Amino acid sequence: MMDTNILGFANDIYQIDVMMENKESRMACYYIDSKDPILIEVGPSNSFPYLISGLETIGISGIKRSAITHLHLDHVGGIGHMVNKYKDHFVYIHELGVKHLPNPQKLWNAVSLIYGEEWLKNNWGEILPTPERNIVSLNDNQKLKLDKDRYLHSIYSPGHAKHHYTFYDQTSGTLFMGDTLGLIYPHGDVVQPNLPPPDFNKEVLFATLNKLKNLELNQLAIAHFGIHTDPYYLIDQAMERIDEWLVFIKLIPSISNDEAAQALKDWVRTNYEVLEIDASTINNYIRNGNFTMQVEGLRNYLINKD
In this structure, is the dihedral angle defined by the CA atoms of residues 211, 160, 156 and 66, taken in order, positive or negative? Predict the structure, then answer.
């Protein structure tokens, strides 16, 4: 059995570190061990052994269903492996999953343009097809039963991606946000934007975040990374950071995306140093920020907005 970091929370919620890119605290999947249990996120293909090992550590096997926030490969890439291992497993996902998961080549090609095919193969792993019979299309405000009086509510949450859902467990007050909030890496409490092209749209994302603020929340469970209390403060902070990043990108000269990414990275690092965040945590945020992608997402939004 592989060494997997698992944390247990109230209301039978488990956080599983699936060691994305063979690094700790890069990708979290969540398991609700209710009467009708469910897995939230599966991670990329290369993380699948860590996911299964983590579930086995808490005595779980034969997982029947999962709910995936969106179609980006660091979240959904391992689903083909899941249904290959457990033939009756089914996945709840945005309706585009019905189109793309049985033949994932288009997803693979799109992500390859950002990361490069060799990097993808080495770090996230190739995605296996998922039969259409194993895919269930989500609807907004759908209720997935967990127990007699407990449900996981699906909430359509575009802005980061047009195919994004968040999942709300009212019993625990937990909102499973995927990438809707942004990035929070241990041992930080700063929300760093995650704004990939082509779907990042400030107005759409802010409408989503403001809608989610109306829920009764105790904690946020995000993919990158972990469960965090003080949910309303974090949501407000996420919107403030996005506005700041947009102002910065507007003010820098018309330089290449790579040059702009370096400028953004240096500026973000300086801001973290002013906040007296420790060097190790800063390096973690910077190393995993993918700033060229962020610049592309920000500039794509600004061009289309104008």
Answer: negative
pLDDT, one tens digit per residue, over 30-40 is 999 999 999 99
- Confidence (pTM): 0.96
Residues 41 and 132 in one domain: yes
Tell whether 92 and 215 lie within a shared domain. Answer: yes
Pairwise CA distance, residues 58 & 216, whole Å:
29
Instruction: Give start and end residues of each alpha helix (H) in the chain.
Output: 48-57, 73-76, 79-85, 96-100, 105-115, 117-123, 202-212, 231-251, 257-274, 279-287, 291-305
Parent domain of 32: 6-238
Least confident window among 10-19, 107-116, 209-218, 230-239: 107-116
CA distance 279 to 285: 10
Task: Give the pLDDT confidence of 88-126 residue by residue, as tens digits.
Answer: 999 999 999 999 999 999 999 988 988 889 999 999 999
Q: Residue 32's beta-bridge partner residues?
A: 13, 38
Find the distance separating the first CA and the last CA of the chain, reported in whole Å. 53
Asked whether residue 260 falls in the same domain as residue 119, the answer is no
Question: Looking at the domain assignment, is residue 278 inside a domain?
Answer: yes
Look at residue 1 and tell me if it is in a domain.
no
CA angle 302, 139, 17 (to 5 degrees): 75
